[in-house]
Amino acid sequence: MNEERSVATISRRTLVKGAAAGSAACLVPWSKMAWAAQDCSTLRAGIAGYSVVNVLDPAKASLIPEFYVIWALFNCLLKFNEKMELVGDLAESWEHTSPTLWRFKLRDGVTFHDGAPMTAEDVKFTLDRVRAKDGDSPHKDKFASISDIRVVDPLTVEIEMAEPFAPLLSYLANARTGSQIVPKHLLDGGDERSFADRPVGTGAYKFVSHQPNVEIVLEGHSGYFVPDQPFIPNVTMPLIPEEASGVTALLGGAIDLTSTAPFADVPNLMQNPKVKVLRSPGLNTRFIALNHQTAPFDDVHFRRALSMAFDREAMVQIVLFGEGTAANGLIPAALSWAHEPKRRPLMSFDPERAKAELEKSKYGPGTEAVVLTWGAGWWKRFAELFAAQVNETLGTRLRVEVSEANTVYSRLRAKDYQASIWGWLGLIDPDEYTYEILHTDGWRNFHGYSNKDVDALLERARGEMDQARRGEIYKQAESLMAEDAPVICCFESHVHNLMTPEVNGFVQLPYSAFGGQLAAVTSC
Amino acid sequence: MTGLAITGILLFAILVVAHLMPYSPTEMSFTAVLKPPSWEHIFGTDSFGRDVFTRVLYGARISLLISVCGVALAMSIGTAIGMTAAYFGRLYDLVAMRFMDLLFSFPSFVLALFLMVILGFGVVNVMFAIALVYMPLFARLAHNMTLVVREEPYVQAARATGQPSIRLLLREILPNIAAPLMVQASIGVAFGIIIEAGLSFLGLGVQPPTPSLGVIMADGQEYFRRAPWVLTMSGLAVCFALLGLNLLGDGLRDLVDPRLRQRAE
Amino acid sequence: MSNLLEVRGLQTTFQLRGGAIKVVEGVDFDVRSGEVLGLIGESGSGKTVTCMSILRLLPEHASVKADHLVFEGREIATLDESEFRGLRGRRMAMIFQDPVGSFNPVKTIGWHFRHVSRRVSDSRPELFRDRGAWKREAAALLRRVGIPHGKDILGSYPHQLSGGMLQRALVALVLQMRPALIVADEPTTNLDNIVEHQIVELFRGLKDEFQSSFIFITHDMSIAAKLCDRIAVMYAGQIVEVGRAEDVLNDPKHPYSQGLVRTATELAARVERLQEIPGELPNWRSMTGGCRFKPRCPHGRAGCESPQPMRRLTQGREVRCLQHEAS
Amino acid sequence: MKTLRYFIGRLLIAVTMMVIGALAVFLVMKAAPGDPALAALGEQATPDAIAAFRAEHGLDAPLIEQFVSWLRDMIGGDFGRSLTIAGGESISKLIAGRLPNTIFVGLYAVLFATAISLVIGSVAALRRGKLSDTLATSVAAVGVSMPDFWLGYVLILLFALTLGWLPSYGFTSPFESLSGALVTGLLPALAISAPMAAVFARTLRTSLLENAQRDYVTVARSFGFSERFVFRHYVFRNSIIPYIVIIGLQIRYLLGGVVVVERVFGVPGVGSLMVDAAFARDYPVVQACTIVFLAIVLSVNLTVDVTCAALDPKRTQ
Predict the structure, then answer these.
(1) Which chains are adjacent to chain D, needing at least 3 Cβ pairs under 8 Å?
(2) Which of D142, D210, D254 is opposite residue B239, by nearest beta carbon?
(3) Which of B16, C100, C168, D315 is the most core-located residue (most Cβ within 10 A)?
(4) Are the C-beta atoms of A321 and B223 separated by less than 8 Å?
(5) D and C adjacent (3 or more CB pairs under 8 angstroms)
(6) ipTM of this predicted complex?
(7) Model confidence at A1: pLDDT above 60
(8) Number of folded domains that form chain B
(9) Does residue B57 lie in a domain region?
(10) Domains in chain C and their CATH numbers?
(11) Which residues form the domain of B152?
């Protein structure tokens, strides 16, 4: 950075600009009234519980708050409706011409925020970019089985699969998938970094500014293809580090809508006339990740013992204040067609059997191990409770080590851990919950778990186009997995959105597709 | 002397009463989650159904321990630096004291925070953070007083008899500057507790399940709308402890400094 | 010669944690207009307290009683605080021992003069005849007290001046207000001999020049001799002897006065071994009703235990001693 | 003239302190464990990605080289770029956006502390020994003993959640709406200022009492000056210097309070930035914030020194 520029960065003008932007995040009652007077020209949709949004480039994004924004800026070929059924978004229609060939007809007259029309070229470019073998997109594995993408005409695109691949459609939907359609004319040979800073999509809202750790400002995309959406011309997305603070902000009139709610407060908030609470069983999974390459978790009996040594129901009550359901596997109940409703014995609290398993194990009571966790809030208490309960039942000596989320994540990937709380939110296909986490070369498999039969089943599921039958396979696979207890499934948490009574039209999806739902909001 | 009384009560509570409590500070009871204050739980219970009062007692013990160790460390190092600097003077004095001034120029909590980032979280590091924050205070105090005492005839005399400096510092000077240092220490302990609480409150300090005052408050803060008593009660306990220590410090100061004492009349 | 100040039965008590102690008791004396009354006695004999009692400058825990206090012909013992404040500075002022501590350290000498002048603007309107009138007056007074370029020091701060300078400045400050009565409380003790000499000379000059009366507190007979018209000797909170300066100094009647004078002459004569008064001031709590000098008195006799009144010897000569009962 | 020389002297000291402080921070930071590259790159960090990252941030240049360039940039007002919490964002920009808020809240707090302490301190001193004195003194004692962040929550509970008078969270920048800033800053400022006010009040009380016993006060009375005049121009005027010195000394605790309280009330200031950065192991940001805080303290001390010099003629000697 040269002198002039560095001087410029601290010139008063920037100060003012920065501060003004910074402040928009938080408002006093009357500045709210001021806005209300303008008949709600700005929807203040707080992203609670996160303070960091790095990249807004779909292919590169990984953190959930990043997607909260991306979902508002971009569209995919498909999307989920409120019943979680796949419907067309940028794609008008699609057909399955052969087990391995998909053809999508694109919607006509869709334009990017910069006015350029969206065509099949952009779709091809986007998907090629995401799946590029040498690329660094965290989502590339989802599209690994694509063999070729062909532009038939400006509004038709064909996707050729190496082998039949059932999850493809879900992965082309506007979720945490990275398949959001990006403009070729900007990115082909363009500067990816600047795109990540000033993303351009086809979404209902276009990017205005981003003040790191403070807020993201969006404004309506006049050329949006859904008639008279978006209803509300401007959106600001304040970043509020603590969920609890999010509530305070809402009650204090500083924001209209939150992305999440602190579990502790939900019951009270439901009673509170000043707040509307949306709640639904979440598409997510929370578990204790175990490193099979280190003692004591290299012993299947020990792992099973753990799995039965604590009370999942109690955990839901204590850690989530009841805002969730005890897990019966990795696939959440919200994916009913793939979820086993009958409680698996290995996933229920059974001290006797747990002790019995410990007998079989080569590690006795008094075994020591460290459970990683992070941050404040319920993550910490999650680990605390787990360790405490297990120690009480088995007489083991599990110890909690609090670190910081990023660090935990890199330690997980480096397999530099014994056990750690972990979880995935916003995954929309059973394949993500199972194949990616359990398959020998699933990219979310940080546990070193490998079971031929499970792998086989998961591969078969990918090829099975009939949803019912596919679901059965997953149930089978999970029952098999349960025997090895590769991870200790704990619970799924509900997803919540809080809003002021004035907010109407916001539809909540189980994967908390926050930004994606803003376009339909009619009033605030 | 109120300070002494309160501090006495405090010590009695954390050393004796803690053991008389029917509850464990760490053992969870899912039947008694988030119970508001009542006769069997005067501070109520937390999200794990643990008796907050019991936790506060044990927490106070740990916080106090951390703070005392930190301050003790600060006092020994700081005093050593201050005394030697004043005694030997010259460049060493200049460099050492300037460095202390530098440390003194950092906002206390910022310095602690910075150190936690470097060293990582945890009990011992909180102790070091406190020590680092208070070292310059003691260094300055010791420095100034040594400068005075050094000129006293008996010190000069001892010097003349060619006593080794170390011995001189320990035998002649230290005893004469000890009292004010102790005063500073008792107040330092109070501030130490605040620092510990602050760091742990942010989640950068002591880590659960170790129940330090800061940890308890951090936990209470998470659901303080649902169960305000956890945060408020533990906070009140902190105030009580600090009040005791501060008053104690003032009392000691009056005792030590006759000018101030006579003014107190 | 009329009396400017008449003090009768002055009694000052300090309320201390240990109980009340009478520091000044049964003090009677007059100050005639235009004269210098020397108040003499070793330190702690209550000289300063006596004067501060009259000016009501003692802290709250001191209580002052007097049968009557007549100043300029009016009873001032009964005046309420605000009325009395009207007198302070304007009519009666005090010059304290420590010149350095007497000035407000954060204000210039000029500041002091300005506000003192304001204080007396009604009695001395000429000071504000025009801007800077008070300045000129101040400069003149400073010159008078021996600070030639007075104007310059108006701008300087106390800590920039020497003790002697400040003492002179303080005197000038008081004179600026033209009070009728000036109490000078050992104004020379903190100064070295030369300066002391100069100050004493200064007072001699002033005494003739300004028509004010002085109470000059000192423990130094030689100064008293140079300066005073009359002398009152104080011992242990009582006046033990009053008289014209030369009488008291040449022929002291009270054993204590005698002792004082002897030491002084010996001092002047540079005698080898000083013959000091044996013993020391009695402590306030163990004070008996009788003669307070008895424990140290060479002529102690039966009867000294009973309270001793002032005994009139000749016109204007009184002494508090049993020896002079007869006459 | 003297004052000017004095000021320049102070300034030089402050600047040297600043530079040395910066060096200390830099070196310590370098000694810190943990790989910023790993912390920075999210999911799927490939070895070559890490290498590239390290190269981009010059993390593998020799220490001294890194230091020199870092210092040069910093003097130019460029603190480098954030690693994790605002990937790639220029830290100077981050801080520039937040510094005004921090300063505003800080000043606001000092203002409160001063106002409160002036009243309590004077009352205590004037009614010394009386009930109001004991009351004031014990209020002060309690004040010092309250952790500011806890007080913050109590205030929220009271004024925002129970009474609903004041916003419980968030802060309006003074640049946007001064009144807004004053309202949103009220609770944070109160929380921070309580302990300060207590300390200030005590100092004021003691030095008032001390000065009330000085000779020049008696002398002033002997001039017949009114009690009010004596209090104003003698007692108070002479007590104000130690009072200001204490304010200067306390600023480091005050800023400490700001850090936590900003977090509690969601004030987008340098303090909350530093806490976020601390969690995310964003070393450059933590480093920058620390230095900014150091700079604030030093400049405050400088101001205090100069003010005292102006108020106390002895100083410049």
Answers:
(1) A, B, C
(2) D142
(3) C168
(4) yes
(5) yes
(6) 0.75
(7) no
(8) 1
(9) no
(10) 3-91+183-324 (3.40.50.300), 104-178 (no CATH)
(11) 63-260
